[in-house]
Amino acid sequence: MTESVNEKKYLAGKFALVTGSSRGIGRGIALKLAEKGVKVAVNYLKDEAAANDTLAKIKELGSDGFIVQADVCNPKDIERMVSEVRDKFGKLDIFVSNALGNLLGFMSPPLQVSLQQWEEACRAQSSAFLVGVQQAAGLLSDKGRILAISYWPGSHAGGFLPYFAMGTNKAAVEAMCRYFAVALAPRGITVNAVCAGITDDSIVNSLPKEAQDAMLSWLKEGWNPMKRPGTPADIGGAIATLCTEDAGWITGQTIIADGGASLMNPEVPLFFQLP
User: Fold this and answer.
1) Cα dist from 17 to 85, 134, 200, 262, 274, whole Å
2) Which one from 170, 179, 209, 220 is the annotated catalytic residue?
3) Residue 260 to residues 6, 34, 202, 242: CA-CA distances in angstroms?
C-alpha cells in the first residue's frame, strides 16, 4: 500500500502526451497515468468523440488534460501537437509514442509489399518516433520519460509475413530507443520500448471475426501461459511503472509485457510446457 501511495505521489501533477490515445492500448495508457494523477494530452487522428470520451474518463479519475488532433505521419502535425502541449501544459514529463497509423493498409508480405506501403509504415512508425522525440525533447523536464509501444514477435521474429513493414519498423523504433537513451541520459531522461502482446480492445478487434476467434482460442489453449489476451490496462500498468521514480535507472531497454507468451517454445508440444 505504501509503495502505491508513494508512486502516485511522485507522478501526481506531471504532464503526459500519449499519441493514439483516443482508444485501445493508448487509452489504457492514458487512463492508467491519470489514475496516478498525471494530466494527459489525448492525441487522436479522426475520432474526436472517442478522444473526448477518453478525456471524460480521465476527469472521472480525478485528473485532467485536453484533446489534440494530429496525424503522426505528418511531421508538421507532430510539431503543432507538441506546440499545443507547450501552450496548454507549459512543460512535459512523459511522452508515449503509441499511434499505429493505418496498419491494415500496409500489411503485406515482404515479396509483395509496395514501396508506397513501406513508406507509409515508415512515416507512421520510425519517422514519427524520430520527429516526436526530437520535438518533445526540448519540452521534456529533466528525469522525464519517453516510451514507445512495440511488438516482440514483429520486431524479433519473421513468421507473420503480412506484418513485414510494421515489424521491421518496430525493430527500428526499439533500436532508436537505445540511441535516444544514450543521447538523453545526461538529463536523466529514460527511453524504453514496451512490447505489448496480443491485446483485447485494440487493433486486434479490427481483424475479421474468424481471425480474432482463432487468436484468442490459441492463447486460451496455453500459448499464453496466463491463458488470456492482454488488456489496455495491462499495458498501461507497464508504462506507468516505467514512469515512476524507482524506474529511473532503467533506460534503453525493450521490455516485454505479454503475460509470458514470448516464453513459450513453438517447437515443443504444450503439454510439455504447461504446469
Assistant:
1) 8, 14, 23, 29, 40
2) 170
3) 28, 27, 19, 19
pLDDT tens figures, 192-230: 999 999 888 777 777 788 888 888 888 999 999 999 999
Establish whether 163 is a catalytic residue: yes
For residue 205, tell me if it sits in a domain. Answer: yes
Q: Is residue 72 part of a domain?
A: yes
| Tally of structural domains, the chain | 1
- Single out the catalytic residue among 32, 36, 151, 163: 163
Cell numbers describing residue 48: 474526436
Beta pairing partners, 42: 18, 67
Q: What is the pTM of this model?
A: 0.95
Domain that holds residue 173: 2-259
In angstroms, the CA 113 to CA 115 distance is: 7
pLDDT attached to residue 1: 43
**Domain membership flag for residue 193:** yes
Does residue 170 have an active-site annotation? yes
Domain for residue 113, yes or no? yes
